[in-house]
Specification:
Strand content of chain B: 15-25%
Structural class of chain B: alpha/beta
CATH class of the domain at 12-88 and 249-331 and 492-534 in chain A: Alpha Beta
CATH superfamily of the domain at 12-88 and 249-331 and 492-534 in chain A: FAD/NAD(P)-binding domain
CATH architecture of the domain at 5-42 and 59-67 and 231-309 and 446-501 in chain B: 3-Layer(bba) Sandwich
CATH superfamily of the domain at 5-42 and 59-67 and 231-309 and 446-501 in chain B: FAD/NAD(P)-binding domain
Largest sheet of chain A: 7 strands, mixed
Helix content of chain B: 25-40%
Distance between the termini of chain B: 10 Å
Oligomer: heterodimer
Largest sheet of chain B: 7 strands, mixed
Largest interface: A-B, 31 and 39 residues
Chain lengths: ~525, ~500
């Protein structure tokens, strides 16, 4: 990849994309591929937004924020030829749930092995586990119909929209009644209640339920969290269902591949060039003004930033209808997670006495019981970070030696809950950051007694830090809560869920639009295709 | 030809179903032990000379169309002038009523901005009432396994929604899955107001105000609540019984139902088999399928679904016999103690771990103010619903645990209603376990099933969601059926409609 300057080659474009996160890059790539003259402007020196790899400690490459891939749409990989541009995904094959005083529970890609593991805790659960997987697999195929197209518009009278609703209805009809019932439950129930209809054993339930809360400010007992369980069955790599993986070289490599693809189609990218505001004349976006005062003209302006930042900071309330502004204000961005990245000079040893390291190559969930995870949430609701948090840990260096010096390792812990709005006020996070990092390391220490001796470098990121570095409002990793009232035709707000905005020629393409957050690429792709289809660019 | 019907249970839903069926010419027998007529509204002497109201006492959601259909006013039922609930805040008190301007004025005393917002809030619900009422007052469409006949009502709901206009339609779709916390936060600034509006919406499910979906309960409440009846639940039950007798319903009160034999009849506690082709059960779905039928009669799937139907009771009732009269601001007979939304959430948190909060939230009902016969002259009966208390208290609901909870509640009451100090002469606590035992409701869940979105849309399971069951001639009509628990009469009326729709067979 070329080094990116902060000076554009031209001062006029068909489209300028604000933000060089993966969605902005995907959007730019599609537009460039269609022959448009496109410029991407990124505020940071490094491209990728929340999908970046950074050598924060010398010799160690951290996937600073987003750390696993699964939902990245396979057709985008094909259409943009991302593999040729450097994308390589290493499958993750295990989910490990260590327990105090026990061997813990490992779920393997091999379902027979998983059943044996579960049977240690409950033979009944072991026998239902494959059936559960099958049901979820079928439902996730249905859900893919929803995330791979623009959001249906139930209030629209446009015949095309009505046809689309009908098509979705037909997909729904093709499911058998049992599956439709399951789908309803999945959308509305809590992860714990949903799983308890199938399973009885700790640690299986919290181990599975944990995926339901990632990135949200909800507990595993909160209604609405069951839905995200499906994501674990929706992940697909090379068309294979239920696969999760690491991007070789760290998550940033995905963004680099997208950037390379965009450039190969002729898009131009500048970095270190923050946008100060969107230039608007007579109610139309006509370009952007950079923080350094440079002005870039564009027929179309596309923001991949979150809705709050896009409209309240870069556009400004004066340019927008009052009702739209109040809708954007009530759109919930609730930072709930933090990240602790550790550089280790050796692999820490787990207390469990389990031989080998193959069970450590996937993700490691610290969720020993339902109550443990729920208590972590209860603490956070009132403005404290969890003293004993839920952790999702990966050690990507076990699968991808390129991210650490030989024999050394990178450990990345996704931490929940870390509310952005702590009781003392978000701006006081810097004073709490060390205590937060210690709580995480203390938690890991309960399972890996020697973790502290292994640490040679660390990075602790609170949601306040995530906001500072990436710009994500309140540090919300999904650019807005993925709760039902903020999805599909309501994302980000009613009547503006088709990537357009009330300002003419200003479009959106970030995770704050349908189908939402995660390293999927879908919002960027769907925004570009909608724009091209509707003559928006 | 009239075929005979047995209605099991003499609660509000059982009585309503029986009346509708008899009115349509069916030969109806109501099977119910004498002392449980009224179901969860049934009264009992809890302290010498003092009679309790039932565990369900709020009649403001009883459907007006049922009152009209069954001509209950001719049987002595009269609407109250207004229904009022006092908010007993830490420092300030104000009164919420069904009169919007009066309430807005009261709210104005604590927040000028909220007073105006309340008017808009009430107007919003008034605007969206038609499609929501339409949904709640009809047999629900089968959304899990629709046959072509169900698509039409579904389409009609869709059209009714569209008729609201784009903005309100999208707003209805947005608000239903929300947390009551976020929704009320969008509207109001005053903490006590928000908490008072939220409390009734969250006590029906295993949820606090932070839980998604709780806003659907608030929606249902705001859209269906009207004025209650003079004399409260007792008056409602008396009118229904009188109407039932007028329709010629036979009351079989010597024994209760113990087993259901679909197509044959009902076995009673006295050992008899009362024969009937059609059986309408007003007891909860768990009781019907898991206790009153033989296990081998149920398919594995139905059994699993009914077992999974969530009926975790979360409320206790503390009954107080008091000397002298207690009065609430504005002459209200109800009051709420919940200081803010977080206080409700914090009252819920411990339940998840089998514990009770030190500061439960309270709904107070001056029962004897509405029905003076409950207490001797010059004395009173106060009923307090305590939220939240787990059914499965860690260590069990021992006498000690009950005493501890009672002390906690009385301490809060005395602080907010100083007149209560030294006035309490008798008290009795009904924990969820006691409620289960006394009223026969699974889990002590007074709505016969939690009001969570999945359990409201398909209640209690797909094969039973339209009051019919997989068993020939067996119908359900409790709060465990659509549209849910509380004194609405709706499940009873709609179940009767379902029976009558199957005219040819039953």
């Amino acid at each position: 990849m070329n080094e990116h300057t902060d000076k554009p080659r031209s001062n006029s474009y068909d489209a300028v994309v604000i933000g060089g996160g993966h969605n902005g890059l995907v959007c730019a790539a599609y537009l460039a591929k269609a022959g448009k003259k496109v410029l991407v402007v990124e505020r940071r020196q490094v491209l990728g937004g929340a999908a970046v790899s950074e050598e924060t400690v010398k010799g160690f490459t951290f996937s600073t924020f987003s750390y696993v891939v699964s939902l990245f749409r396979p057709h985008i990989i094909r259409e943009l030829d991302l593999v040729r541009h450097g994308l390589q995904i290493i499958p993750m094959e295990t989910t490990y749930n260590p327990l105090p005083g026990d061997k813990g529970l490992v779920r393997w890609a091999d379902s027979g092995k998983t059943r044996d593991e579960i049977a240690r805790f409950s033979p009944k659960d072991a026998s239902l586990y494959p059936e559960f997987g099958l049901a979820m697999g079928r439902l996730s195929r249905f859900t893919k119909n929803v995330i791979d197209t623009t959001a249906p518009q139930p209030a629209s009278l446009d015949p095309r929209e009505l046809m689309k609703m009908l098509r979705l209805g037909r997909h729904l009809r093709d499911l058998d009644p049992e599956m439709r019932y399951l789908n309803l439950k999945l959308l509305t129930m809590s992860a714990v209640d949903f799983l308890h209809e199938w399973f009885e054993s700790e640690p299986l339930v919290p181990s599975m339920a944990g995926s339901g809360i990632i990135g949200t400010f909800l507990g595993i007992r909160s209604p609405g969290t069951a839905y995200v369980l499906l994501h674990h069955y929706m992940g697909e790599i090379d068309g294979a269902f239920r696969a999760w993986g690491f991007s070789k070289g760290g998550t940033g490599q995905i963004s680099i591949a997208c950037a390379n693809a965009a450039e190969s189609f002729g898009a131009e990218i500048i970095a270190g060039a923050g946008v100060d505001h969107v230039k608007i004349r007579n109610g139309r976006a006509v370009g952007v003004v950079l923080e350094n005062g440079d002005e870039i003209k564009a027929a179309t302006v596309i923001s991949s930033l979150d809705p709050n930042r896009t409209f309240l900071k870069l556009v400004g309330e004066r340019e927008l209808p009052g009702e739209f502004v109040s809708n954007i204000r009530r759109y919930k961005n609730r930072g709930s997670s933090g990240k602790v990245n550790l550089a280790l000079d050796r692999l820490p040893s787990f207390r469990d006495g389990r031989p080998g390291i193959s069970h450590l190559k996937g993700d490691i969930t610290i969720a020993p019981s339902v109550d443990y995870v729920e208590r972590a949430y209860d603490e956070a609701k009132y403005g404290e970070f969890s003293k004993r948090p839920f952790l999702n840990i990966v050690i990507p260096s076990l699968s991808d030696p390129s991210v650490a010096p030989p024999g050394k390792h990178v450990l990345s812990a996704f931490v929940q809950y870390a509310p952005y709005n702590i009781r003392e006020g978000a701006e006081n996070w810097p004073e709490k950051r060390d205590a937060f990092g210690d709580a995480v390391i203390d938690t890991i220490e309960e399972f890996c007694p020697d973790i502290r001796e292994c640490i040679v470098g660390k990075q602790v990121l609170s949601p306040w830090d995530i906001e500072k570095i990436t710009g994500l409002t309140e540090g919300n990793i999904f650019q807005g809560e993925l709760s039902l009232e903020q999805l599909a035709f309501l994302r980000p707000v009613a009547e503006w869920s088709r990537y357009r905005s009330p300002v003419r020629n200003l479009w959106m393409c970030g995770s704050g639009t349908h189908p939402g957050g995660g390293v999927m690429g879908a919002p960027g792709e769907l925004a570009a295709k909608t724009m091209l289809g509707e003559g928006g660019v | 030809m009239a075929s005979s019907v047995i209605v099991i249970g003499g609660g509000v839903n059982g009585l309503t179903a029986a009346c509708y069926l008899a009115k349509a010419g069916r030969d109806v027998t109501l099977l119910c032990e004498e002392d449980s007529i009224g179901g969860m509204c049934a009264t009992h002497e809890f302290h010498p000379g003092f009679t309790s109201p039932g565990v369900l006492s709020d009649t403001s959601m009883f459907r007006e169309w049922i009152v009209r259909d069954l001509r209950l006013e001719e049987h002595g039922l009269a609407f109250e002038g207004s229904s009022k609930a006092a908010v007993l805040g830490k420092e300030r008190r104000f009164v919420l009523s069904d009169d919007v301007s009066e309430t807005a004025e009261e709210i104005g005393r604590v927040s000028k901005a909220d007073a105006g917002r309340y008017r808009e809030f009430a107007a919003f619900y008034e605007r969206i009432r038609p499609p929501v009422e339409r949904l709640l007052n009809n047999i629900p469409p089968n959304i899990v396994d629709p046959v072509s006949g169900d698509l039409l009502p579904l389409l009609r709901y869709g059209l009714a929604l569209r008729r609201l206009g784009k903005k309100d339609m999208l707003e209805v779709l947005r608000l239903a899955p929300m947390t009551v916390y976020d929704w009320l936060d969008e509207w109001f600034e005053n903490d006590e107001l928000k908490a008072a509006l939220a409390l009734p919406a969250v006590t029906e499910s295993y949820a606090g105000p932070w839980s998604p979906g709780t806003n659907a309960n608030l929606l249902i409440r705001r859209v269906t609540a009207g004025r209650g009846f003079k004399g409260g639940a007792t008056a409602l039950v008396e009118a229904l019984v009188s109407a039932a007798k007028g329709f010629g319903i036979r009351f079989e009160t010597g024994a209760g139902a113990i087993a259901i034999r679909p197509g044959e009849g009902v076995e009673t506690t006295a050992g008899d088999l009362l024969e009937a082709k059609t059986i309408v059960a007003s007891c909860g779905p768990k009781k019907v399928f898991l206790e009153m039928m033989r296990p081998h009669e149920l398919s594995h799937r139905l059994e699993r679904r009914i077992v999974n139907f969530r009926t975790r009771g979360l409320s206790s009732q503390l009954l107080l016999a008091v000397d002298g009269t207690i009065s609430l601001p504005g002459g209200a007979d109800r009051a709420v103690i919940a200081d803010d939304l977080d206080a409700i959430e914090k009252a819920f948190d411990p339940v998840k771990y089998g514990e009770v909060s030190d500061s439960p939230c309270l709904e107070i009902y001056l029962a004897s103010q509405e029905d003076p016969e409950l207490a001797p002259k010059g004395k009173g009966v106060v009923s307090v619903m305590v939220h939240y208390t787990p059914y499965d208290l860690r260590g069990g609901w021992t006498e000690e645990a009950g005493e501890e909870l009672t002390r906690k509640v009385i301490r809060i009451l005395e602080e907010r209603i100083p007149e209560l100090r030294d006035a309490v002469v008798g008290r009795k606590l009904l924990t969820p376990k006691d409620i289960e035992q006394r009223y026969g409701v699974s889990g002590g869940q007074i709505y016969e099933g939690e009001h969570a979105l999945d359990q409201l849309l398909v209640r209690p399971s797909p094969e039973c969601a339209m009051y019919e069951t997989p068993f020939e001639g067996l119908f359900l009509c409790s709060g465990g059926s659509f549209p849910g628990g509380g004194l609405t009469g709706a499940p009873g009326a709609l179940a009767a409609r379902a029976v009558l729709n199957r005219r040819s067979r039953y």
